[in-house]
Design a protein that fits this description.
The chain has about 250 residues and is α+β, with helices and mostly antiparallel strands. The chain is built from nine helices and ten strands. The chain has a six-stranded antiparallel beta sheet. The longest helix has 16 residues, at about 10-25.
Length: about 250
Amino acid sequence: MTIKYDKKEPLYEQLMDTIKVKIKNDYKADDKLPSEREIMRKYSVSRNTVRQALNELEILGLIYRQHGKGTFVANATDNPATLGNEHSFTKQMIALGRKPETKIMEYSVRPANKYFANKLNINEGDRIIKLKRLRSADKVPVMIDRTYLPFSKFEGLSAVELEVKHRSLYAVFAEDFGEEFRIADEALSAGRISDKDADVLQVAQGSPGLMLQRTTFNQQNEIIEFTLSSTRSDQYVYNIRYKNTKI
């Protein structure tokens, strides 16, 4: 089978469109796609064309790669989580009919350096809590959160509350410490998932990801959380709705 060449469109984009149709009609999430060599042979295209097409599909979040295993259809084609609509990962996943899980990878108390003191609006040297968590949905690793909290507000915070009892961090804030969030500022950027995080998230090294930075304020406008997240781009979609205020 060959792709009918259209001079107005690069060949790799035509191959992308062909693979998109195949994914939509013939595959489901986490199905394995043919190898680069098989795609080359099937569509009579060069390896460079195949790699360009697959790279673009990966950036779009339609496929993901696992080193030594192959290329797979991303779950984002089916029911992606939508950033910006729900502050709690746990509530997001439940709303999508997926089972959320949290694994505590690190829990430590340490003095704040200048960077984290500024982010939490506390004094340098004040104690902070660091939580490193792996967030999964239906057993699929989705994101790694590195969360920093002022120790003075959350002394006695138990990792068990977050991991074993499956309560969201914000439920623990409110129910155990009387700290309800008022607003949360998030900054989102595209980036490359670090090699260390890629191993944990089960994606190929060098994979694209969504990098989030979140600062959460309580009802008194005090900062109660600063989080850095590394997220698989095939598991999340960022949607924004604009409203014409003149109408």
